[in-house]
Write a structure and sequence with these properties.
The chain is mainly beta and 239 residues long. 11% of the residues lie in helices and 30% in strands. Strands 1, 2, 3, 4, 5, 6, 7, 8 and 9 form a 9-stranded antiparallel β-sheet that branches.
Length: 239
Amino acid sequence: MFVITRPFKTLFSTRFLPVVLATVFTLSMLPWTALQAQQLPGQPGLQLDFPAQSPGIPAYARLELLVPNFDVPNTRRWAAIVFYRDPACVPPDFDLGQFFHLPGPTGLGAFACPLLVEGHEIWQNGPDTDRAPMYVRTRNAVPNLPIWFVEWNELRPILESGQVFIGDITALPSLVRGSAYWYEEALYPNGTAEIPGITLRSEGTFEGGGKFRLKWHFTDQGAEDEVTIRLWRKPMFRK
């Protein structure tokens, strides 16, 4: 579990501090489960929309080395990296494997980069009371959400090194940059969901032509880990 060891003062430290802290704990208690695959416990009392009412996830990309067997969706042939914020905005010295980049004395962390996704968090009572939301739903807020694909045999050694920098990824020979016109993600956090897990689904296109389809269903510490990555490198023409 991720633990904040020192307080920070930013523009989020007054109005949004409870939401930021609760969101951090929510997203750190991975894994998650399927897209509306289970009933929410009880009747939720509060919904917070992000980024309007909550600052959203303090991370740049869905890449994490803190949870065993939970790094990126991969088929052992291809791996996919979903960006919640502009890849060009990622600091070159930030370890993406740490996932969270929290505000601190040196700046706003990931909050300094515009959020490219939107959605809502459902709480039983609220971030001042609850340990975590019962459910988080995310979708693309822009028509070209960045999703990058790399060959797994190139990315895996980097992950095994324990640190991943944005320059490591952009230097991979197999890198294919994609843009998702449709992205959905469902989160059932550990501690509030009967079966914690994540499901995400996406479709999009590549620079220079071609298209992709991505699906990932991960639950119960990897008891279920189903990934589909389909890449069409050349444009598909209808007859």
